Amino acid sequence: MIAAPISAHGDTDAYRMVDLVEDNAAVVHALGEQSALIVGHDWGSTIAANSALVLLDVFRAVGLLSVPYAPRGGPRPSKAFAQMGGEEEFYVSYFQEPGRAEAEIEPDVRGWLAPGRANNNPATAGGGAGPARGVGCFWYGAALFGSLAVPGRL
What we know:
It is built from seven helices and four strands; from the N terminus they run H-E-H-E-H-E-H-H-H-E-H. The protein is of the alpha/beta class. A two-stranded parallel ribbon has the order 1-2.
């Protein structure tokens, strides 16, 4: 198993998808192999899917973790996210409007990160810091927030 970093990660102008696909093939060939299985997580899922689609002879199987396959020409991610949340807002959408999340979080970062954030869970509604309406998805990850060590100084 090889866990290769994504080239130019965070620098959106440095690489195009075709460059990232070529990087994946270069890793396989640099290891002296002709083909491999490829697995991607989060943004890497999109890169892994494209690698497998473009280079069928190099990547004979693909695994996608946390981000489903989305073919080109499908709905815009923002539209898909709006549908994912159901009655609640999908967490990614919450962070898309500039300044919105900051306005809620920055006045009390410590309170926002507190274990009481689980108040977004319908089963424990009203039990802690945070907005009255939940941000979909945060509640199911409440164990994550409960396990965070809160530093003495933020």
